[in-house]
Write a structure and sequence with these properties.
The chain is α+β, with helices and mostly antiparallel strands. The protein has 2 domains: 17-91, no CATH class; 106-212, no CATH class. It has helices at 52-61, 63-69, 87-95, 106-118; strands at 17-21, 29-31, 34-36, 41-43, 73-78, 125-132, 143-150, 153-155, 158-160, 163-166, 169-171, 177-180, 189-194, 205-212. Helix 1 (52-61) packs across helix 2. The longest helix has 13 residues, at 106-118.
Length: 213
Amino acid sequence: MSGFDDFAPYLNKCGNFIVKNISPQIKTINIFTYPINYGYERNLLLIPGVAEDDIRASLLKGEIRNKFLVGDIELIFSDIDLIQFSDCQKEWLQSLGFNLGIEIGYNQLDGYVHGLLENGGNVPYLWREKIPLIGIKDGINRTFYTPDKFINGSYFNNIFHLTVEHNGKELYESVDYSIAESGIPGSGYDTINIFSFTPNIHSLLYATYTIKV
């Protein structure tokens, strides 16, 4: 299933990312190779092999972003995880009509505070900002490491994602790099495999992430 997530071959049962074809050319368009007739809607998460990560990457740096920019599609409804730490990205998503999944709401915050009280008032994680990645930058190596095991996914009523920057430009998971565990499965993420380019001696690589405490 080239071009799609091999770990998501089945139909999604819960999440939604629904767009409508409003092409100015009144034509059929394709997203993830699936057609959407003019005036019709499609839930992209119902496409076999398409996962939230695929949609997130395409929305921020791919064909879905382009379809929005040229006016081929409009958002009908989305409830997937699009939490943004970049104000610029969040404002752009809001301008397209996204209002769910781009920031932590009060209900989630209430759950977080309740969790803190149960935890004796101690914050269960720490924020690591712009930490230099470990690895040789020689124009050949593409594997780098964080000095800590970082959280990727749901933890303590929050959803956390790694952010990687190259020379001040944000990179995107599944588009520019993938993450992995250097130890046995379950030992924690700390590895970044870059595949969209090869860092060299002039590359400045930083990561922002959260760790468990």
